[in-house]
UniProtKB/TrEMBL annotation:
Molecular function per GO: rRNA binding; structural constituent of ribosome
Organism field: Methyloceanibacter superfactus
Name the record gives this protein: Large ribosomal subunit protein uL22
GO biological process: translation
A GO CC term assigned to this protein in UniProt: cytosolic large ribosomal subunit
Record keywords, A-Z: Ribonucleoprotein, Ribosomal protein, RNA-binding, rRNA-binding
């Protein structure tokens, strides 16, 4: 006997990918989330490929994972996918100490973030 299967939180035309422990502050990661939000996936991938931000490669991998989930797990058409949601959350913070004058120490926070990308299949209106 196993547990009853949980109902799917997303609609049938949506797929999701989550990346945790990205070594960047959530504020910087949110700039890239805003860049791809609402765009078609091929355009969003192109924007991330040529972005000058260091973390753009991690965001691109997350988006590619969401596209692969849509194609393989939910049988959605890749050409009709749009980034419906892209949001960022906080994750853990590493605390480090930096030596300062007179035997004191200053704390340095090294934040981590997580990113969730949801893609949705849209019907082409002609």
């Amino acid at each position: 006997m196993s547990k009853p299967q949980r109902e799917r939180a997303l609609k049938d035309t949506e797929a999701k990918a989550v990346t945790r422990l990205i070594r960047v502050s959530p504020q910087k990661l949110n700039l890239l989330a805003q860049l791809i939000r609402g765009k078609k996936v091929d355009r969003a991938l192109a924007d991330l490929t040529f972005s000058r931000k260091r973390v753009a490669q991690d965001v691109k991998k997350t988006l590619e994972s969401a596209i692969a989930n849509a194609e393989n797990n939910h049988d959605l058409d890749v050409d009709a996918l749009v980034v419906s949601e892209a949001y960022v959350g906080k994750n853990m913070v590493m605390k480090r100490l930096r030596a300062r004058a007179r035997g004191r120490g200053a704390r340095i926070d090294k934040p981590f973030a997580q990113m969730t990308v949801i893609v949705r299949q849209v019907e082409e209106s002609a």
